[in-house]
């Protein structure tokens, strides 16, 4: 059995884990990243990477504070991280359009536009059907209108995640965590599948949808389940789509690789990460509903990934119940790329100083009770 030591161990090398290692390093705390598959090999390597903190589950509501904090950190990272890491993270500002095909959809979007315009630093406007087609003439003729949201952005999730890991200087260990060592009510190390151990002062559990495995380690539920999402990358005739066009959680945009990215699905399929024909049909159907002229676009790649979801839709972020020195950071769902830097920074604060100025009450990992 091999025992090594580290200031901190972060389990999971997706966006949240790598952001945690990055912010720990900025505070002078070295970390080991433990992931049997490597950096950005799951959702953080395949997601679209849209960044907009004023929409999504729990916004407005309990996720808003984390969304705003994380969005500000993304802007900071866009300035610092390319030089710190040598990686291009693909950050760019990009407006977003939300379509309405019925009056009830239009009413909901207008209400959201009014709320967005009350938030500092953001602006939105309702567009008539005629104005909408000046944004992109290919938008479906029966769209009754839509909203144009300014201030949104996008990033290359894989590039960002790898840049965070590189800039953190963390050792990346290709192994699987199987348990914790503890002395009384305090964790003192991590046990690995290969029989080794890492003695450490803090453990951050950031395994995404696989975090439920830690329930037995903690003696408390970590009720995170996978939500499968599929994305198509297509070659399409005509000019690029210079914004993100969306409807009912679906989107289409041209990425810097020159391909049209369209998504996404939401399926409960356990831990199956294989793309499906049903997913392909669903994404293509919604793409053509929004942009009928793209019916002939050629699919060049199809990917699938698993997003971590909690029962109430809020992330799990903070101290693990019942065991000192352990922190949980998972549950970002469809907005995991947006939330990643905020979750990582908050975890690093807790490890280094024992506190963070972000109110973590809505995200308390202990809110689901005891096993």
Please tag this protein with its features.
single chain, 371 residues, alpha+beta, D-Amino Acid Oxidase, Chain A, domain 2, 2 domains, 8-stranded mixed beta sheet, 19 strands
The first-level CATH class of the largest domain is given as: Alpha Beta
Q: What is the radius of gyration?
A: 21 Å
CATH topology descriptor of the largest domain: FAD/NAD(P)-binding domain
What does the average pLDDT come to? Answer: 97
- The overall number of domains is 2
How much of the polypeptide forms β-strand, as a percent range?
25-35%
Q: Work out the helix count.
A: 9
> Topology as H/E string?
EHEHEHEEHEHEEHEEEEHEEEEHEEEH
Q: What's the helical proportion of residues?
A: 25-40%
List low-confidence stretches.
Answer: none
DSSP E strands, number:
19
Task: Explain what you see.
The protein has helices spanning 15-26, 43-46, 64-85, 103-116, 129-135, 157-168, 215-218, 277-290, 336-353; strands at 3-11, 31-34, 50-51, 92-93, 96-100, 123-128, 145-150, 153-154, 171-173, 177-183, 186-192, 197-205, 225-235, 244-247, 250-254, 260-263, 298-309, 316-319, 326-330. The protein has 371 residues and is an alpha+beta fold. The chain has two domains: 3-86 and 157-223 and 311-368, FAD/NAD(P)-binding domain (3-Layer(bba) Sandwich); 93-152 and 226-309, D-Amino Acid Oxidase, Chain A, domain 2 (2-Layer Sandwich), CATH 3.30.9.10. The strands form three sheets. Strands 1, 2, 9, 10, 11, 12, 18 and 19 form an eight-stranded mixed β-sheet that branches. Helix 1 (15-26) packs parallel to helix 9 and helix 3 (64-85) crosses helix 6. It is elongated, with a radius of gyration of 21 Å. The two termini are 30 Å apart. The model has no long low-confidence stretch (mean pLDDT 97).
């Amino acid at each position: 059995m091999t025992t090594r030591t580290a200031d901190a161990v972060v389990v999971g090398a997706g966006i949240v884990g790598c952001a945690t290692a990055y912010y720990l390093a900025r505070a002078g705390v070295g970390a080991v990243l433990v992931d049997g598959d490597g950096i950005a090999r799951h959702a953080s390597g395949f997601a679209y990477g849209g960044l907009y903190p004023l929409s999504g589950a729990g916004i407005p509501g309990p996720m808003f504070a984390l969304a705003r904090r994380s969005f500000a950190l993304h802007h900071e990272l866009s300035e610092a991280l390319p030089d710190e890491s040598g990686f291009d993270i693909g950050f760019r500002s990009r407006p977003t359009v939300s379509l309405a095909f019925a009056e009830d959809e239009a009413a909901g979007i207008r209400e959201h536009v009014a709320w967005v315009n009350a938030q500092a630093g953001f602006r939105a406007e309702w567009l008539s059907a005629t104005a909408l087609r000046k944004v992109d003439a290919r938008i479906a003729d029966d769209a009754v209108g839509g909203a144009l949201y300014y201030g949104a952005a996008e990033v290359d999730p894989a590039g960002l995640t790898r840049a965070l890991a590189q800039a953190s200087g963390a050792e990346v260990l290709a192994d699987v965590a199987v348990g914790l060592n503890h002395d009384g009510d305090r964790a003192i190390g991590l046990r690995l599948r290969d029989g080794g151990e890492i003695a450490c002062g803090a453990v951050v559990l950031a395994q995404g949808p696989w975090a439920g495995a830690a329930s037995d380690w903690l003696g408390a539920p970590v009720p995170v389940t996978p939500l499968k999402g599929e994305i198509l990358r297509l070659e399409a005739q005509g000019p690029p789509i210079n914004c993100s066009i969306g409807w009912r959680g679906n989107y289409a945009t041209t990425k810097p690789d020159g391909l049209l990215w369209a998504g996404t699905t939401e399926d409960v399929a356990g831990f199956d990460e294989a793309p499906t024909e049903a997913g392909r049909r669903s994404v293509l159907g919604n793409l053509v509903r929004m942009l009928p002229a793209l019916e002939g676009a050629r699919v060049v790649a199809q990917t699938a990934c698993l997003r971590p979801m909690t029962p109430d839709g809020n992330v799990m972020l903070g101290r693990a119940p019942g065991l000192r020195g352990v922190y949980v950071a998972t549950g970002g769902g469809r907005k995991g790329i947006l939330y990643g830097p905020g979750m990582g920074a908050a975890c690093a604060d807790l490890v280094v100083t024992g506190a963070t100025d972000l109110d973590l009450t809505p995200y308390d990992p202990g809110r689901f009770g005891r096993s």
